[in-house]
Amino acid sequence: MADPVLGIRGYGLDYRTPAGAVAALRDIDLAVGAGEVVGLVGESGSGKTSLGLAIMRYLAPNAVETGGSIRLDGADLTGLPPQAIRRIRGRRIGMVFQDPSTSLNPTLTLGEQVVEVLVEHRGLTGAAAASEAEALLGKVGLREPAAMMRRYPHEASGGEKQRVVIAAAFACQPQLVIFDEPTTALDVVTARQILDLFAALQAETGTASLYISHDLAVVSRIAARVAVMHRGRIVEQGPTREVFAQPQHAYTRRLLEAVPRPDRRQSTVEPRAEEPLLELQRLTVSYGRVSLLDSLLRRNRRVTGARDVSLAVRPGEILGIVGESGSGKSTLARALTGLAAFSGSIRLRDRLVTAPRDMGRAYRRDVQIVFQNPDSSLNPRHRIGQILARPLKLFGAGNQGHLGARIAALLEEVQLPADYARRFPHQLSGGEKQRVAIARALAPAPSLLICDEITSSLDVSVQAAVVELLLRLQSRSGASTLFITHDINLVRQIAHRIAVMFRGELVELIGSDELAARGPRHPYTAELIGAVPTVLV
Amino acid sequence: MRLLRTPQGLIGAIIVALVVVMVIFGPWIAPYSPEGLAPLNRYKPPNALYWLGTDQYGRDILSRLLHGARATVVLAVIATSAATLMGALIGTTSAFLGGRIDEAIMRTIDAVMSVPTLLMALLIVSALGKSGTNAVLAIAIAGTPGMARITRSVALAVRQQDYVNAALARGETAAFVVLREMLPNVVAPIVIEWTIRIAFAVMVFATLSFLGLGAQPPAPEWGLMVSEARKFMHLSLWMILWPSLAIAFVAIGFNLLGDGLRDALNPRT
What does the pLDDT look like over A194-220, one tens digit per residue? Predict the structure, then answer.
């Protein structure tokens, strides 16, 4: 068998921290053959990014290699001096990073950044380099490559920038390209286009690729072989179909269980057939201040976040709101909680609210919200007990038992130990913090719970646990839930009805059963469903 | 204590503790009276009798330093603390309110800041009369705008955080959000700025004293000692050296303490 393009044997990496050496990678055995796509999956903290950077020899100052070898075409990279590494990087190994807005230099034009690679490694100059760069931009599917050469990164969209980065990575026809979560920072439809581009380039150039991702669905569709990483070790490796159809390791099984699959509906209590709990009538939210100059010149500079949204939510119903970033779904959440000014009306039971200042204490108790990022939704200076005590004190909600006991009861409901009340948020993990945020929202027993992308910043396995907890609490309390997310697979799994938003407007409102049976009505919904991969087994 | 775990915190705490000892016990430890004239012993360098030497009237410099610690340090700390408190409240509230009110407050702050500190202090002292209290007030008012600006920029970042939004969604009052949610998170840069400004305050007091608007001779205020000693540098370097070193010592001590406090106040480290 020919030497694999990339052969890693017994590789280990430690990070020296003030608290001692932290083992980031241990006993890594991985091989990528010519023309092969190998997927590397793992959650945050598994070491997959460290491995990608170690292959490129971007070692942190406190990184210590504990042995093993990384061979590129037989030659060991770990022993090479810096000049030799510089000659290899970009020329024989290319890398595509996660966030295109930070991997491109904002002060250089896109053309200059591709030319840079060509000048450095292929020795082209002047007109030859420029025309080659333009040809590359055309090959990655950019329309009008000549115009794109002259643009700056901030004048290009996320998808276009990522294509430029891919062009630069492929410019020198490298033997190996490492992709580190290249589509995570892009919206779903653009991500699909990048994946298609990847498949096309792969087929055309036959470059060996290492695709690092936390998204099992994506990896299942593009990688021939997959390696699963957990806490710095590769726990399972093999052909993708086999690993995903019959996972051997317990961790792989857990990971696959946690991926949202629209065909696996999680049973929830059916909504009660009563009067609608919440009715939105032509809700419109606009952002931006009208300055004096604007009003004098009669210029309308306001951006519309949501336009004429009307919908009704029944008691006990889970309504999923799906859309891309900028679609207006979070804007709805902000309007409902009085964080953004709106026009139109909100009717909660028999109370009509036409402006945030109409929202009285009763309304505030009835409508509670859980935010996306648990790191910023809990005050880092307050202890958990303090955070949970506040809504209890504010909204009373009866006076059964004294505060300490009620806080302990809340923590138990979200499956956290009672002594967490004395801790600070930074001492909890992301999933635990999100549970505290859910406990805080459910403390005053609301009738409407708004979940604004509560799982987006969590790992897949943690996400599944949080969603399961949420569903259990929701069915017990009977609260209606507005579940806002960009993950349509997740929403099809748990919601009774689905609302699809696009550019501030509500384009579709459909029951999930009907969606599964008869398919979407609006073309955008069809596009969204088509763009999001599900795990292929 | 967490403060004493870092080297800066430890050294800063030691120096400030020494300064506090000087402030409280200074007059008892001093070997001579600060006003004891001894014309036959003028301009003496440090010797067995006078540990730090004598000044132009033969007064013992060490005793004057020990007595002067009170005048210098205590007033500087009070003035800076008042400026910090006012500035922090104004800055945080302005960041919370946002919009036109924020603009209005900030432009007013800019206007006050455009007057040089010393000039502002002079104006206030001339208007209100020469006394320690008025000097403190003057420095407090002059220092508030700088504090307000720093606090506001930190508070603006804090305002964007979701825990502030969560509090607003609960219907909390503005006072609660500013005092209980935002201020605790704005504390760290304020503390560091406070310690830096104490050093400035000491020097502004010295200048005021030099101009005759703060402490009056024969008060042993350190800044006054420095300005008086300028005339006699050619006769005795020690007269200007010791009070200058004392002021520098206090400034360094407070700066190091500030660094240590910043780390100690951060629940993450």
Answer: 888 988 988 888 899 999 998 888 898
Q: Average pLDDT of A442-460?
A: 89
3-state secondary structure A266-311: CCCCCCCCCCCCEEEEEEEEEECCCCHHHHHHCCCCCEEEEEEEEE
Give the three-state DSSP class for B182.
helix
Asked whether the beta carbons of residue B185 and residue A381 sit closer than 8 angstroms, the reply is: yes
* Percent of all residues in chain B with a pLDDT value above 90, rounded to a whole number: 25
Non-local CB neighbours of B22 within 8 Å, separated by 6+ positions: B29, B65, B66, B69, B73
In chain B, residues with a C-beta closer than 8 Å to the C-beta of A364 are 169-171
Residue that the structure tokens 């959650």 belong to = A43
Helix, strand, coil percent values for chain A (each to nearest 5) = 40, 25, 35
| CA nearest neighbour of A533 among A259, A129, A313 | A259
The residues pairing with A64 across neighbouring beta strands, listed in sequence order, are A14
Average pLDDT, chain A: 88
Q: Give A395 to chain B, closest Cα distance, Å.
A: 9
CB A499 within 8 A of CB A309: no
Retrieve residue A208's tokens: 């060996």
Using the beta-carbon criterion (under 8 Å), do A339 and B169 form an inter-chain contact?
yes
Report residue B164: phi and psi, to 5°: -70, -40
* ipTM exceeding 0.85, yes/no: no
- Nearest residue of A to residue B268, measured between CA atoms: A426
pTM here is 0.79
Which of A189, A211, A212 is closest to A201 using CA atoms? A211
